[in-house]
C-alpha cells in the first residue's frame, strides 16, 4: 500500500511529445482516472508508472520511493492489461499464483492466497480451467485477481472494460470500484470512456495531446470545466463562439445575444474572443408561437428527448427529461417555434482556444 | 476441393513414392562384384550395415553432427528470432531478407568459401601466422568442427524464421504481465516465452535435424576424406562401388533413424512442457 506521485513526467519520441510534464499525486486508497481521447498520452503515462517505458524526464515515486529507474519487476505495481494478458499455457490458479511464486511465497500460503483472491472475484470454482475456456468477463476477473493477490502498492488498470459488452461493463465497473474501496487500493485507471471515469474514480485527470488539461472530481470537471476541451470531453456541451458585451450579455458570432453570468467563473472574465459553454440539459424549452428559436430535429431517447434548435443562426442542443404523455412538449415537431431559457449561472464563459 | 491436391499428389507419387518403392526393392537384392545386382529377397544388406563397425561409426558421426548442429542452431537462432519477431521498425523486412541471405548461395559455393577461410593457407591461418600468434597453421579444416560450423551456417535461417513466426504470435503483454508480477527477464523467458514458443522450437528443430542428417556437400567438402557422414556414404556405394543394394539399404537406415528420432524427440519435448 502506498501513494503514487508523478513529478513533471515527460516522454518524447524524437521531436514528438507523447507526455509533457505531468504532475499528479494519488493518495493512499484513492482512485484516479486518466481520461482523454486516444493518443492523448494517458496509456504512455500508465506504462511509465509500471516501468515499461523509460521517461525522458521527471520522476515516478511509489510509497515515497523514487522508482523512476527501477525495472518493472522490482516495482510494486499490479497491472490489469486491456487484453488481460493472461498466460495462455497456465491454469487460472497458476496465473494467479505467478506473482506469489516470484515473491517466493511458500506453497501452502500461496495456495491459500490464490483461492482467497479467486473467491474475491467469485471464480474459485474455475481454478483449474485454462484462460481460453473462460468468457471475456471471467478472464477479466482472473486478471484482476492476479494483480490483486500480491497486494501491490499501486493498482494500475489499462482500459480494463473496453473488451467487454455494454451490459457486463456496467457490472464490472461497480465490482472493480467496490473491490478498490474495500481493499483501500491506490489506483490509477486509464480510460477514454468518460462515463467509466465519472462513475469509478474519486478524481479525474483530463489529458489531451500529452498535457494535463484539468484535474478534479467529476462534479468539478462537469460544473467548472477549465477550458473548452474539458467542457466538451466531460459530458456534452454547447460551445458558442463570440465575445462578452456586458457582464451578463454574450454576443455570439452569429449575432444572437445570449445572457450569461460572467461573474460565476473564477478569475477575470475573458475580454476578447470567448466561448459560451452551455450544457444541453441546463437549457429549458417551451413551445411559443412567438419564440425566436426553431426546432430542427427531435430525437426521442426514452428517458430523455433531445431537441436540435436554431436561434438567430446559432445551433444549440437541448436535452430534456421526456415529458409525460399529453404534455405540450410531446407534440413539438421540426419547424415549431420555441422559447429557450437558462439560468445565467449555467452559462459559463471560457477562453477561446 | 480434393481435386486441388491432385497435381501435387501426382508429382509426389511419381517423383517420390515410386522411386522409394523401387529403392526398397533394390535394397533387398544381392550384390555380386561381377554381375553387380542379382535379383533376390534378402535382408543381408541391412545386416551388414548394422553390424559393420565402420558404418556404425558413420551413423554415429551423422547423429552427433546432426544433434550438435540442431542444438547449436537453436541456441544461436532463438535470440536472433526473438529480436526479429519483436522488431517494430521499418527495417524488419530488410532484416528478414538478411536472415535469408545465406540461402541465396549454393552449398558447394558456400563450402568453397569456408575452405578459403579455414584452410591451411586460408584467411584465418594467414592472419594468425602473419601476426606471429601461431608458428604454423592451425588444423581448422577437414574435421568435425569445420563441418558443424558449415552446416549450422546453412540451417540457421530455417531455424530463425520458423521460431520468429511462432514468437510473433506470443502477446508482448503476456511478457509485460510477467515482469509486472515480479518476473526477472530470465524468469519471464523460462516461464512464459519458452513454453509458448515450444511449437516453434519443435518445428524448427525437426526441420533442421532432418536437413543435418541428410547433409551432403558440406561434410564432403569441409570434412575431408577421413570424415564420413551417411549421405556421402550412400553416394559412395551407388556411384563408386556400384553396390546399389547396399547403398539402398544404407539410405533406408538413414531414413528410418531420422524418422524415429524426429517423432520421439518432438513428442517428448512437446509433452514435457505441456505438463509444466
UniProtKB/TrEMBL annotation, chain A:
PROSITE patterns, per database record: ABC_TRANSPORTER_1, ABC_TRANSPORTER_2
Molecular function GO labels: ABC-type transporter activity; ATP binding; ATP hydrolysis activity
Tagged with keyword Iron: no
SUPFAM superfamilies reported for this sequence: MOP-like, P-loop containing nucleoside triphosphate hydrolases
Classification via InterPro entries: AAA+_ATPase (IPR003593), ABC_SmlMolc_Importer (IPR050093), ABC_transporter-like_ATP-bd (IPR003439), ABC_transporter-like_CS (IPR017871), Mo/tungstate-bd_C_term_dom (IPR008995), P-loop_NTPase (IPR027417), Transp-assoc_OB_typ2 (IPR013611)
rRNA-binding among keywords: no
Domain of life, source organism: Bacteria
Cellular component terms per the entry's GO annotation: ATP-binding cassette (ABC) transporter complex
Annotated ranges, domain ABC transporter: 4-234
PANTHER family associated with the record: SPERMIDINE/PUTRESCINE IMPORT ATP-BINDING PROTEIN POTA, SPERMIDINE_PUTRESCINE IMPORT ATP-BINDING PROTEIN POTA
Family statement: Belongs to the ABC transporter superfamily.
Protein's UniProt name: Fe3+/spermidine/putrescine ABC transporter ATP-binding protein
From TrEMBL, chain B:
GO cellular component: plasma membrane
Sequence ranges assigned to domain ABC transmembrane type-1 in this UniProt record: 59-265
UniProt KW Acetylation keyword: no
CDD domains: TM_PBP2 (cd06261)
Entry keywords, A to Z: Cell membrane, Membrane, Transmembrane, Transmembrane helix, Transport
Biological processes per GO annotation: transmembrane transport
Cellular localisation: Cell membrane
Main location (coarse class): membrane
Taxonomy, superkingdom: Bacteria
Membrane-topology annotation of the record: Multi-pass membrane protein
TM ranges: 63-85, 97-120, 140-167, 192-217, 246-269
Keyword Nucleotide-binding in record: no
Family according to the record: Belongs to the binding-protein-dependent transport system permease family. CysTW subfamily.
Organism: Teichococcus aestuarii
Name the record gives this protein: ABC transporter permease
Amino acid at each position: 500500500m502506498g501513494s503514487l506521485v508523478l513529478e513533471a513526467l515527460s516522454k518524447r519520441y524524437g521531436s514528438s511529445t507523447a507526455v509533457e510534464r505531468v504532475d499528479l499525486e494519488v493518495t493512499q486508497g484513492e482512485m484516479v482516472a486518466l481520461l482523454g481521447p486516444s493518443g492523448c498520452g494517458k496509456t504512455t503515462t500508465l506504462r511509465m508508472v509500471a516501468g515499461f517505458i523509460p521517461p525522458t524526464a521527471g520522476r515516478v515515486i511509489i510509497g515515497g520511493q523514487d522508482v523512476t529507474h527501477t525495472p518493472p519487476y522490482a516495482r510494486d505495481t499490479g497491472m490489469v492489461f486491456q487484453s488481460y494478458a493472461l498466460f495462455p499455457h497456465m491454469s487460472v490458479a497458476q496465473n494467479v499464483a505467478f506473482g506469489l511464486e516470484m515473491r517466493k511465497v511458500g506453497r501452502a500460503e500461496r495456495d491459500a492466497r490464490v483461492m482467497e483472491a479467486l473467491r474475491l472475484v467469485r471464480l474459485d470454482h474455475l481454478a483449474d480451467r485454462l484462460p481460453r475456456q473462460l468468457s471475456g468477463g471471467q478472464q477479466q476477473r482472473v486478471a484482476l485477481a492476479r494483480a490483486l493477490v500480491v497486494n501491490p502498492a499501486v493498482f494500475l488498470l489499462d482500459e480494463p472494460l473496453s473488451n467487454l459488452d455494454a451490459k457486463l461493463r456496467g457490472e464490472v465497473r461497480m465490482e472493480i470500484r467496490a473491490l478498490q474501496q474495500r481493499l483501500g487500493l491506490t489506483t490509477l485507471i486509464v480510460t477514454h470512456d468518460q462515463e467509466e471515469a465519472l462513475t469509478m474514480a474519486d478524481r479525474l485527470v483530463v489529458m489531451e495531446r500529452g498535457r494535463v488539461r484539468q484535474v478534479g472530481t467529476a462534479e468539478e470537471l462537469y460544473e467548472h470545466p477549465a477550458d473548452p476541451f474539458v467542457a466538451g470531453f466531460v459530458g456534452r456541451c454547447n460551445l458558442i463562439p463570440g465575445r462578452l458585451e456586458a457582464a451578463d450579455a454574450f454576443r455570439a458570432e452569429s449575432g444572437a445575444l445570449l445572457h450569461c453570468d460572467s461573474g460565476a467563473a473564477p478569475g477575470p472574465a475573458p475580454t476578447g474572443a470567448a466561448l459560451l459553454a452551455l450544457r444541453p440539459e441546463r437549457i429549458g424549452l417551451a413551445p411559443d408561437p412567438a419564440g425566436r428559436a426553431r426546432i430542427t430535429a427531435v430525437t426521442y431517447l426514452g428517458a430523455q428527448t433531445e431537441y436540435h434548435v436554431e436561434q438567430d443562426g446559432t445551433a444549440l442542443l437541448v436535452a430534456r427529461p421526456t415529458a409525460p404523455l399529453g404534455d405540450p412538449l410531446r407534440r413539438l415537431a421540426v419547424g415549431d417555434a420555441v422559447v429557450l431559457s437558462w439560468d445565467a449561472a449555467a452559462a459559463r464563459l471560457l477562453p477561446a482556444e | 476441393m480434393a481435386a486441388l491436391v491432385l497435381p501435387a499428389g501426382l508429382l509426389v507419387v511419381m517423383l517420390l513414392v515410386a522411386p522409394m518403392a523401387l529403392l526398397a526393392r533394390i535394397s533387398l537384392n544381392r550384390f555380386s562384384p561381377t554381375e553387380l545386382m542379382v535379383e533376390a529377397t534378402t535382408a543381408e544388406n541391412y545386416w551388414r550395415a548394422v553390424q559393420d563397425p565402420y558404418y556404425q561409426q558413420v551413423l554415429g558421426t551423422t547423429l552427433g553432427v546432426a544433434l550438435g548442429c540442431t542444438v547449436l542452431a537453436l541456441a544461436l537462432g532463438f535470440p536472433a528470432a526473438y529480436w526479429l519477431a519483436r522488431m517494430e521498425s521499418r527495417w524488419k523486412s530488410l532484416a528478414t531478407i538478411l536472415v535469408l541471405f545465406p540461402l541465396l548461395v549454393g552449398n558447394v559455393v558456400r563450402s568453397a568459401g569456408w575452405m578459403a577461410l579455414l584452410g591451411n593457407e586460408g584467411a584465418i591461418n594467414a592472419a594468425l601466422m602473419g601476426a606471429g600468434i601461431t608458428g604454423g597453421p592451425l588444423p581448422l579444416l577437414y574435421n568435425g568442427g569445420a563441418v558443424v560450423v558449415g552446416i549450422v551456417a546453412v540451417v540457421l535461417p530455417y531455424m530463425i524464421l520458423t521460431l520468429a513466426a511462432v514468437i510473433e504470435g506470443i502477446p508482448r503483454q503476456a511478457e509485460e504481465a510477467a515482469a509486472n508480477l515480479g518476473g526477472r527477464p530470465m524468469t519471464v523467458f523460462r516461464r512464459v516465452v519458452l513454453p509458448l514458443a515450444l511449437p516453434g522450437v519443435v518445428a524448427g528443430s525437426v526441420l533442421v535435424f532432418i536437413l543435418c542428417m541428410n547433409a551432403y556437400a558440406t561434410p564432403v567438402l569441409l570434412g575431408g576424406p577421413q570424415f564420413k557422414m551417411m549421405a556421402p556414404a550412400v553416394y559412395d556405394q551407388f556411384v563408386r562401388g556400384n553396390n546399389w543394394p547396399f547403398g539402398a539399404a544404407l539410405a533406408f537406415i538413414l531414413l528410418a533413424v531420422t524418422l524415429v528420432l524426429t517423432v520421439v524427440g518432438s513428442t517428448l519435448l512437446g509433452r514435457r512442457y505441456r505438463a509444466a
